[in-house]
Specification:
5 helices, 3-stranded antiparallel beta sheet, elongated, two-stranded antiparallel sheet, alpha+beta
């Protein structure tokens, strides 16, 4: 959302109409220029990249709480930074590597042994394929133990 500073109401970026139902006054070029200058001098802009589909989820989440996407992201960042300040010894540190990082390490080990890993979406099983056949692992822990044994 943008704000029409001439009427100080939230304005839809698509429709350009006030959202509060108030009377709108035309905004002069000088007023637009002054607002643009103020924003440029007092705010920084950032661009974020999110996985496909996440943008709509974030937008819906913000709207469900009556916030703009920008307001929601600013709040999320501020709250996370405050939480990190409250527990500085764990800020930014995972107690153990995340599953994705561990899976990548296993994939590297298997690749060195000319093997390929497939992860089944249903059931969460793992299949290790190699030239002579394949082997299925029901849990990541079992797969990890297998990979560590290979790497000895």
């Amino acid at each position: 959302m943008r704000y029409n500073y001439g009427i100080l109401e939230e304005v839809s970026p698509i429709l350009g109409a006030p959202q509060g139902g108030g009377e709108s006054m035309p905004v002069s070029k000088a007023q637009q220029k002054a607002v643009h200058k103020y924003v440029k001098e007092n705010y920084d802009r950032m661009e974020i990249t999110v996985p496909k589909g996440q943008k709509e989820i974030i937008k819906a989440h913000a709207e469900a709480r009556g916030e703009s996407v920008n307001g929601f992201l600013n709040r999320a960042v501020s709250e996370t930074m405050e939480r990190d300040k409250a527990a500085p010894e764990t800020a930014g540190k995972a107690t153990e590597p995340c599953l994705h990082t561990q899976e990548q390490a296993v994939r590297r080990i298997l690749y060195r042994h000319k093997m390929h890993l497939k992860k089944l979406r249903k059931g969460g099983s793992y299949i290790v394929e190699q030239e002579g056949g394949s082997q299925t692992f029901g849990t990541f822990e079992a797969l990890l133990a297998y990979a560590q044994e290979l790497d000895k």
